[in-house]
Amino acid sequence: MIFVSRQEHFNAAHKLYNTAWTPEKNEEVFGPCANTNWHGHNFDLIVTVKGEPDPDTGFVVDLKKLSQLIRKEVIEKVDHKNLNVDVPFMAGKMASTENLAIEIWKILEQKLGSVSQTARLHCIKLYETPRNFVEYYG
Ligand code: NI
Fold first, then answer.
1. Which of 5, 20, 36, 50 is deepest in the core (most CB within 10 A)?
2. Domain ranges of the chain
3. Which phi and psi angles does 43 have, rounded to 5°?
4. Which of 9, 28, 80, 109 is catalytic?
């Protein structure tokens, strides 16, 4: 078993705000992340798949095809968007990095078969800042 990763990048706006709470409680829990008029991040998304190298190509997955898949299914839907209001798959969810990583996993797990018959999704690693990141293993 070998693990292969592809990194992509996007920018997006969001805020962390729980509508069931008072403005004061949101401010207390989320601080400036609850700012009414949004804020943005430069996200780095690292998608890791796993499998055995194909005997003919030596590849677990064609990284060009994996990149195209990530861009079409994820990046185009979130890049330069507001995660709270523009992104259907985040509708009704707190726009946290955790929830975003989980939704990205669900999308790519369904679609990975279109670029590889054998590779399986292993990890979604999502950097919100260089020092804040989450990992999701399904
Ligand atoms: Ni934020």
1. 50
2. 2-136
3. -90, 140
4. 80
Q: Which residues surround ligand 1, an ion (CB under 5 A)?
A: 33
By CB neighbour count within 10 A (0-12 exposed, 13-18 middle, 19+ buried), where does 24 fall? exposed
- Annotated catalytic residue within 8, 33, 41, 123: 33
Residues 16 and 26: their CA atoms lie apart, in Å, by: 8
Q: In whole angstroms, what is the distance from residue 71 CA to residue 73 CA? A: 6
Give pLDDT tens digits along the chain (138 positions). 999 999 999 999 999 999 999 999 999 999 999 999 999 999 999 999 999 999 999 999 999 999 999 999 999 999 999 999 999 999 999 999 999 999 999 999 999 999 998 999 999 999 999 999 999 999
Q: Which residue, chain included where needed, has tokens 């890049």?
A: 79
Count the helices and strands in the chain (H runs, E runs).
4, 5
What's the CATH architecture for 2-136? Answer: 2-Layer Sandwich (3.30)
Cα(20) to ligand 1 centroid in Å equals 19
Measured in Å, residue 38 CA sits from the centre of ligand 1 at 8
